Amino acid sequence: SVNENGVYVVEKGAQVSLKDNTEAIDGKSFKVSYKSSDVNVVKTGKTTDKITKLDLKTAGFAVITATAKDTTGSTCRIPVKVVDHSETGIVLSQTAVTEIKALKDA
Fold first, then answer.
1. Containing H/E element for 14?
2. Residue 101 belongs to what H/E stretch?
């Protein structure tokens, strides 16, 4: 999901990938490269069929920079915040929330 500051917030361990939606210009296609500002938080993986997988390593913040490998060298910055709720030691499922509510009402 994207928060109010335009940062993509993702849970550690989630399957996340970037899709290259660029189109050929004058019949010439080009590639896009991705680089992470902090590979200890988010590491860019292999690109297959214009889809690049991200490896969410640990909780933290990183910016993925996408760069067009054409004459313009245009870039796009993608801010990513990785959260790890397992570190808190408390994970509530819908069942647990219902059980807590039932105890409160009793």
1. none
2. helix 94-105
pTM: 0.73
Q: Strand pairing of 8-11 and 75-83?
A: parallel
Task: Give me the sign of the Cα torsion angle 52, 55, 56, 60.
Answer: negative
On whether the CB atoms of residues 7 and 14 are closer than 8 A, the answer is: no
pLDDT 10s digits, 5-63: 888 899 998 889 998 888 777 878 788 899 999 999 999 998 888 899 999 999 999 99
DSSP states of 36-80 as a string?
Answer: ES-TTTEEEEEEETTEEEEEE-SSEEEEEEEEE-SSS--EEEEEE
Task: Give yes or no for a contact between 45 and 79, defined as CB atoms under 8 angstroms apart.
Answer: no
